[in-house]
Design goal:
The protein has 121 residues and is α+β, with helices and mostly antiparallel strands. It has helices at 7-13, 38-41, 46-57, 73-78, 91-100, and strands at residues 2-3, 21-22, 29-37, 63-69, 81-88, 102-104, 107-113.
Length: 121
């Protein structure tokens, strides 16, 4: 389990809560990439491969965390391409991905800003 706390609180609490770690609370800037080929990336290691493709073929872009499919598993079985959510550390990186597109699997992939809504909205 991960807790987001200040450094001083982290120093005081870590000895009381074995098995927990702390990390800085950071905002991720997400985009949605449309047209990711399901034949290449729809398998357990597929999202790690998406991250590798972004790092390798898109100068200055480093995705954070684990990308995930927006397209349902059922639809990915029927479609040749789907949509994937990808996070970046800065709004500049996310904007560059939207403005310049991403190159994944030798394809220029259209991207747009990812808008999230609360479950209660």
């Amino acid at each position: 389990m991960v807790l987001s706390v200040s450094k001083s609180l982290q120093a005081n609490l870590m000895h009381l809560m074995p098995g927990y770690t702390a990390q800085k609370d950071v905002t991720w800037h997400k985009i949605v990439a449309h047209g990711i080929p399901t034949s290449i990336f729809n398998h357990p290691e597929g999202m790690e491969l998406v991250k590798d493709e972004i790092r390798t073929f898109n100068k200055g872009l480093t995705p954070l965390g684990q990308p995930y499919w927006i397209t349902s598993a059922e639809n990915r079985l029927k479609q040749t391409a789907g949509s994937v959510a990808i996070a970046f550390a800065t709004p500049k990186e996310a904007s560059a991905a939207v403005r310049n597109r991403l190159y994944i699997a030798g394809i220029s992939i259209q991207c747009e800003k990812h808008y999230t809504t609360r479950p209660t909205a």
